[in-house]
Amino acid sequence: MGLLTATPALLDHRLTVIDAGPRPGPGAFPGYRIQSNSTGSDFFGWVDPAGPFGPVLDDPAVRRLREHRGAFDLALLAGALDRFGDRLATLLPPDRLIREDPLVHVAVDKEAIGLTLASGRRIDTRALVLALGITEPAHDALAPWAARTIPSGRIVRDHLAALPPLPADRPVRIVIAGGSHSAYSAALVLADAVDAGRLSAEVTILHRGPARLFYPNMDAQVAEPHGPLEALPDLARDICPETGQVFRYSGLRHRARALFREIAQGARQGFTQRQIPAIDDAADLLDRADLIVQALGYQSRRLAMTIDGRPWDPAGGRAVVRPGPDGRIPLPEGSPAQIFVMGMDPYPYDDGALTPTGQYALRGGQILAALARPPAAGQPLPLAEPV
Ligand SMILES: Cc1cc2nc3c(=O)[nH]c(=O)nc-3n(C[C@H](O)[C@H](O)[C@H](O)COP(=O)(O)OP(=O)(O)OC[C@H]3O[C@@H](n4cnc5c(N)ncnc54)[C@H](O)[C@@H]3O)c2cc1C
Q1: Mind listing the domains of the chain with CATH numbers?
Q2: What spacing in Å lies between the alpha carbon of 235 and ligand 1's midpoint?
Q3: Per-residue pLDDT tens over the stretch 298-313
Q4: Which of 115, 136, 167, 317 has its CA at 20 to 30 Å from residue 245's CA atom?
């Protein structure tokens, strides 16, 4: 939705949107039953009020999000994205908005891109944008404790219902591996349950490195005391040149930040933080844990791809699919196929764009430029059902 709402000129092309879910727009956000690490005003400033998505800016759900001060429940963002999805559905012909029919295979043959959906439907296209989001697969470092490990996303989505049966006669020993926003979102669910008398737990949060905390500016950062587990900002790298904010996107914010500080100051009984260079260094603790919450990061969601008949991994064996400077996935041997990637790396995006706003419009411009170029001579594209 970021891409399309920032670059609605993409709708002037023969565009098809394919989504595995029932509704275009909200993506993963309905599953995040936690508070944001962003602010409502971060969103939709990129939408041209005079463009096709402009009227949605006046929708009460969108206004509520954008005017909200401070942290908000991510359900608010899911609702706003839903409104943009509704608008998209009115802008595309019905057969060009495909829902609940996931893309399962991409076959690249020179410039031609052949898509196969789960239903068996096939689509040939001249350009493809992969915007499949991220997943949280089981991490190798926790393999010895896999039977007692759940991903942080489960707690974020299902809260206490995510927990397996646990001892009821003593405080449950829980280890959260990782010190990110996801880790502290899971920790907050647990802390709220403890406060509500629904859980008795000893929770240890394992940090690999010092944690980043968001500050509105450097003066605010200097004014606060910092414990040994808090990362000190690199003045050249970690201050947003647009806003002066410190760790603008990567820093813990709102209640997650408050919980970090509370634990760091020893003010939250039953919760401790430990810095460990490697997971194995906490083997004793993990052996004794009743439950381990994995919050060690995300990978790009993949699907099967072939290039000239040979299987191909768009991430090149790494965790994240990273586009080249032109926004395309670098293909082997300079294959000219136009496959772009939007997002698919853990937030904040990491392709040189300063903010998501810049990333959406940047990628949209790159796709429009590629579409403006005629296909290479001698390679007519099979446009049976084109995008
Ligand atoms: C715990 C947590 C908290 C976060 N908090 C914030 C926050 O406060 N603010 C913020 O801005 N960001 C936050 N983020 C980041 C945010 O989730 C992502 O930036 C955002 O969801 C990325 O959107 P996306 O469209 O790239 O991916 P997703 O939202 O994951 O959407 C992927 C889409 O691809 C579809 N799809 C997947 N596979 C297929 C397929 N094979 N075929 C067709 N469709 C497919 C899915 O149905 C889905 O609609 C958070 C992330 C996490 C994990």
Answers
A1: 2-135+299-372 (3.50.50.60), 140-211+252-294 (3.40.50)
A2: 30
A3: 999 999 999 999 999 9
A4: 136
